[in-house]
Design brief:
It is a single chain. By secondary structure, the chain is α/β, with parallel strands linked by helices. It has a single domain, classed as 3-Layer(aba) Sandwich (Stationary-phase Survival Protein Sure Homolog, Chain: A), CATH 3.40.1210. It is built from eight helices and eleven strands. A hairpin with a 5-residue loop joins strand 9 and strand 10. The longest helix has 17 residues. The relative contact order is 0.13. Bound molecules: manganese (II) ion. The site of manganese (II) ion (MN) has 6 residues, from helix 4.
Length: about 280
């Protein structure tokens, strides 16, 4: 099995090294990761500038490629031809903070895995619930072992096409982790606040700051699993269609097809819909 390893904390992050070392026990490993930290960078396709790729060495001497693109760019680069040997699985992480609920579209870790799905390659994102611990002080032993276990299972069981796994591991020693749970996305509660300041020239600028997000602790969710000291495994898909809403949208009185062109309003405000 040829495994592509990437992350969003940057190619020199300890979590990437831990994941690469774990994957090397299972198959051939190629590393393509961003040269800087892209946490919160979301699903990016860089089209307004060229992407540069450089060979780098990790602290254990492992050869890797780094790019000035986002994590999702790194995956696209690798799968579109930068890496010659066909890739069987993309793994992303190990991120130093959990990616739960609505975090998944912000997360560079998870969106790197989403990019792999677009190119038809299965993918698994791994995050450790390290809260705000210093990444350089963090212990990735338990998360590495969980990653190895899950990828070994993946190699036997496979995944349905178009599905990625979002794995979150509690920050605990392996013997204190209670088990593994299949979960759905829970509800993240964001506590962002806009911080307005002034630069030395008197112009306003803004930081989106505030406190670390919490989450609604519900059984069956990713947040609930972590709160109970379980590893959370959430299957995700890129089809975000709200299928139940198709029924209620079906009750809207769109003009009949043949007359739609003639009936389209010319003034934008006429498009406003009163529910
Ligand atoms: Mn990150």
């Amino acid at each position: 099995m040829h495994i592509l390893v990437t992350n969003d904390d940057g190619v020199q992050a300890p979590g990437l090294l831990a994941l690469a070392q774990a994957m090397r026990q299972i198959g051939d490993v190629t590393i393509v990761a961003p040269e800087r930290n892209w946490s919160g960078g979301g699903h990016v396709k860089t089209i307004d500038r060229p992407l540069r790729v450089r060979p780098v060495k990790l602290v254990d001497g492992t050869s890797a490629l780094s790019s000035d693109g986002a994590p999702s760019d790194c995956v696209a680069l690798a799968l579109l031809g930068l890496v010659e040997q066909p890739v069987n699985l993309v793994v992303s992480g190990i991120n130093t903070m959990a990616n739960l609920g609505h975090d998944v579209t912000y997360s560079g870790t998870v969106t790197a895995a989403m990019e792999a799905i677009i190119w038809g390659v299965p993918a698994i994102a791994f995050s450790l619930d390290g809260s705000r611990r210093d990444p350089n002080e963090m212990d990735f032993t338990a998360a590495s072992r969980i990653a190895r276990l899950i990828v070994r299972l993946f190699s036997q069981r496979k995944l349905p096409k178009g599905i990625l796994l979002n794995v979150n591991v509690p920050y605990l020693p392996i013997d204190e982790i209670k088990g593994i749970r299949n979960t759905r996305q829970g509800l993240r509660l964001y506590r962002d606040r806009l911080d307005k300041r002034q630069d030395p020239r008197g112009h306003d600028y803004y930081w989106i700051g505030g406190d670390f997000p919490t989450g609604k602790d519900e059984k069956g969710t990713d947040i609930g699993a972590l709160a109970r000291d379980y590893v959370s495994v959430t299957p995700l898909q890129l089809d975000l269609t709200a299928y139940p809403a198709l029924a209620s949208l079906g009750k809207w009185d769109w003009p009949p097809d043949s007359t739609a062109q003639a009936n389209l309003p010319t003034e934008p405000e006429q498009l406003a819909v009163t529910a």
